[in-house]
Amino acid sequence: VFILGIETSCDETSASVVQDGRIVLSNVIASQADIHKRFGGVVPEVASRRHVENITLTIEEALREAGKTLSDIQAIAVTYGPGLVGALLVGVAAAKAISYARGIPLIGVHHIAGHIYANRLVTELEFPLIALVVSGGHTELVWMKEHGHYEILGETRDDAAGEAYDKVARALQLPYPGGPHIDRLAHEGTAAAIPLPRAWLEPGSYDFSFSGLKSAVLNTLHNASQRGETINPADVAASFQDSVTEVLVEKTTRAVKEFGAQQVLLAGGVAANRGLRERLAKRCQEEGIPLVIPPLSLCTDNAAMIAAAGYISYQKGKFASLDLNGVPGLPLS
Ligand code: ATP
Ligand code: MG
Ligand code: FE
């Protein structure tokens, strides 16, 4: 079964052909990061217009790279939420048009389900499992008993992990998106240099909070500049990353033990973070629990993960009708 995946929820226009939900034949990503960089963040109206300009070529390129034509495709899987509504609509409209024109089923995919299923492009999933989802807009621990079933054990009460990375990066005057820059700097600094808080919240809670940490970093920078002192940005990055990854990894490990997971998945753009990958790998090894982490190219937004998640709906015969709409606040469970 060949599924064409389409992703336009934020600032990446992406199309991909995936075979049987497991084998990536192509995964074309047109990133708009360079355009949004000068605004320091994604400008929704600009993003929608760019998606419109890029979508047709991106789909054609994905088919060409896969060595397929539309007549080889059995279904279209598209992200219909959450995300920027104007951006989502471009992908949804393109998917509906192809579905209607070719008479093949349309599948609506939740963007975060896509991030989780990026892991199935690496290896087969073993249930029950825990997925740690860390992205630009989400931070959650997800419990999965079986394919396509999601239960949120805990989530962020304020900023998402990626959002915190990007805000701290901006305070350090690093370019957007700042996550990768902090990651790089963190490896040159000392984590113990600046004492920063850890948001454990109430005992037993699987929720997260990053806004207090972000404020602590901003205060540290502000106070230093008031006193005319300089702080090594690498130390700030290392101390910030240490706080974020400690809480993420410890809560994930606790959930694994409490619920008895067979596997841990790391998902979302922040899964590209080296500090997080290393720390989680070490902890999972100590606990003897198998960990799956997607390659860097499948961590940030891409359509292969959408096609992989869509394959589960395809097998269950769960199809969308042609009135499918973009849903900016679509819930996962
Ligand atoms: P969501 O998936 O929640 O809708 P999104 O699609 O905008 O949000 P992703 O594309 O999944 O987010 O991830 C982008 C985020 O990942 C950005 O905040 C970016 O800074 C962060 N990120 C990417 N690489 C790294 C890294 N190496 N270290 C830390 N953060 C990173
Ligand atoms: Mg992006
Ligand atoms: Fe994403």
TrEMBL record:
CDD domains: ASKHA_NBD_TsaD_bac (cd24133). Its EC number is 2.3.1.234. The keyword Cytoplasm applies. Keywords: Acyltransferase, Cytoplasm, Iron, Metal-binding, Transferase, tRNA processing. It catalyses: L-threonylcarbamoyladenylate + adenosine(37) in tRNA = N(6)-L-threonylcarbamoyladenosine(37) in tRNA + AMP + H(+). The keyword tRNA processing applies. Fe cation binds at residues 111, 115, 301. One of its GO terms (biological process) is tRNA threonylcarbamoyladenosine modification. It comes from the Bacteria. GO terms for molecular function: iron ion binding; tRNA N(6)-L-threonylcarbamoyladenine synthase activity. One of its GO terms (cellular component) is cytoplasm. Binds 1 Fe(2+) ion per subunit. It is found in: Cytoplasm. Belongs to the KAE1 / TsaD family. Required for the formation of a threonylcarbamoyl group on adenosine at position 37 (t(6)A37) in tRNAs that read codons beginning with adenine. Is involved in the transfer of the threonylcarbamoyl moiety of threonylcarbamoyl-AMP (TC-AMP) to the N6 group of A37, together with TsaE and TsaB. TsaD likely plays a direct catalytic role in this reaction. This is tRNA N6-adenosine threonylcarbamoyltransferase. It comes from Brevibacillus composti.
